[in-house]
């Protein structure tokens, strides 16, 4: 593993765009060092960025991710950080479970509407066929 990364090296390493890195840098979630005019990122920046990306993938807000990262720096015992992580994870699980229930209900309603529409179309087609036969 490298000691220092350029924006492009870090982006390639993590499979993201340099623009994504600059966005998280602008939000203050990572803070590169300067090597002359070039910004360079160290292993700590890489680790923080990996936490940010994982947090976003899991649906956490940038504010929640920042709060977690701030505790990482402030609490060397990691007790508060782990408490926050547990609370936020439980909240996220609860929210996702509710979304799953809502989604299941919505799918059931849509399937019922779909079945009604198919039945109605079949009845219309049958009536049109019967009407055509009567005239013919």
TrEMBL record:
SUPFAM superfamilies: Putative DNA-binding domain. The keyword DNA-binding applies. PROSITE patterns: HTH_MERR_2. CDD domains: HTH_GnyR (cd04776). This is MerR family DNA-binding transcriptional regulator. Residues 4-71 form the HTH merR-type domain. It comes from the Bacteria. InterPro entries: DNA-bd_dom_put_sf (IPR009061), MerR-type_HTH_dom (IPR000551), MerR_fam (IPR047057). Residues 79-130 form a coiled coil. One of its GO terms (molecular function) is DNA binding. Keywords: Coiled coil, DNA-binding.
